[in-house]
Amino acid sequence: GKVDRIHLDPNTQTALVIDYKTGKPFRDWDRGSENEQRKAWEYKNQLIFYKLLLENSRTFGDKYQVRQGKIEFIEPFKDQNIALTLEITNHDLEQTKQLIEIIYRKITTLDFPDTTKYGNDFAATQLFINDLLDGHI
């Protein structure tokens, strides 16, 4: 996808990345059904990736820092729009960079791990990612 909106603040040299979503909104990053937790995790990663793209771009990289990302659900919920703001931490950023590097290396070396021991649910996805990050696979 592409960034839906970027709010630039030249006074603080910060940028807020905003992505619009349709579909059923949710109100919390860390609670809800398994499907909502998976979606929240995907949205968080999307915002972190946008931070990486912006801060490493020729246009914005040396001028702005992305500290937050926001998901705005554009279909109203009880006559109100819902927005979730994410404070992007250094830990989130470093973990995402590390995961990108690991996956890139696995693809370029054709090292595709056997995933049959992992299930298809969100917990299994998290276990797989942790195993990648910990060097177990």
Structural class: alpha+beta
Largest sheet: 4 strands, mixed
Order of helices and strands: EEHEEHH
Strands, total number: 4
As a percent range, the share of strand residues is: 15-25%
N-end to C-end Cα span: 29 Å
Helix content: 25-40%
- What is the 3D shape? flat
Q: Can you offer a commentary on this structure?
A:
This protein is of the alpha+beta class. 39% of the residues lie in helices and 25% in strands. The chain has helices spanning 34-55, 90-108, 122-134, and strands at 5-9, 14-21, 65-77, 80-87. β3 (65-77) and β4 form a beta hairpin. The radius of gyration is 17 Å and the shape is flat. The model has no long low-confidence stretch (mean pLDDT 92).
Walk me through the topology.
Layout: E1 5-9, E2 14-21, H1 34-55, E3 65-77, E4 80-87, H2 90-108, H3 122-134
Parallel strand pairs: 2-3
Antiparallel strand pairs: 1-2, 3-4
Helix pairs in contact: 1-2
Q: Gist?
A:
With 137 residues, this protein is α+β, with helices and mostly antiparallel strands. The protein has helices at 34-55, 90-108, 122-134, and strands at 5-9, 14-21, 65-77, 80-87. The protein is 39% helix and 25% strand.
